[in-house]
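Chapter review. Work through the record for Hydroxymethylglutaryl-CoA lyase before attempting the end-of-chapter questions.
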Amino acid sequence: MSTEVTVIEVGPRDGLQNEQTPVSTEDKIELISRSVAAGVRRIEAVSFSHPRLVPQMADAEAVMAGVPRVEGVSYIGLVLNRRGLDRAMAAEVDEVNVVVVATDTFSTKNQNVTTDRMLETWDEIAAETPAGIRRSMTIAASFGCPFEGETPPERVAEIARRAAAAGADEIALADTIGVGVPAQVRTLTRLVREAAPGVPLRFHFHNTRNTGYANALTAVEEGVTVLDASAGGFGGCPFAPAATGNIATEDLLYALHRSGKTTGIDEESVAETGAWLGTVLGKPAPALRGRAGGFPQGRTS
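Structure tokens for Hydroxymethylglutaryl-CoA lyase:
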């Protein structure tokens, strides 16, 4: 089992998209710059969604114009349609991520299309993304839907099969509303690997019901080496009732480092960033690592 785990910082996009306090372009670039300086090498920087629907992401192009271009750092842009892909390419992202919601009701509320129609959009985007740009699919509501209840694991596997058929470079399974438990992580990991053999798998957890970190460690035990997290533990989906924050990057790093995993990311620096972001948003960061400190003292990566 690999000791290296890649942690993708999703705070600039998923961490901020549901926040009511406007965040300036300069502060978004500062958040990204802090993450790069801490050692993060994959960052979900922006979403190319409609500004009316997700106003916090209205300055996506301006953010991408100001991010530090450092060798080895890859910037991910969320795209939901061909227009979004065109904007992402013009902004020079390194990866495009397409969200496909696993249930029709949530998909319609979130993206105004059914799951099958979004899969058609995925096929189009995957086919038209230029060579050299990574294409990933995030399967949202993989663990449960706020409107339909349990999400059938077989449906998630079916969507993953479609992702692989179109040439996905990575598939992410998202617990969008934070209802998942470790047993589901094990089941979905095995089903998706069967459905999409050879396609790298990553997970995106929310800590709504305090299971996010247990789920993340379970995924690592299953051999998954890529996890999403948000500095400070901010985040949530604007279209999911009562959806609270992502697992906090600094808290996840603590759990991984104490479990003998390496990430290349400075834990203390991220904790400081989480606290700073709380001041920008005008509320305390949900993360706990920044309050309690590390252990043993001096262990930061």
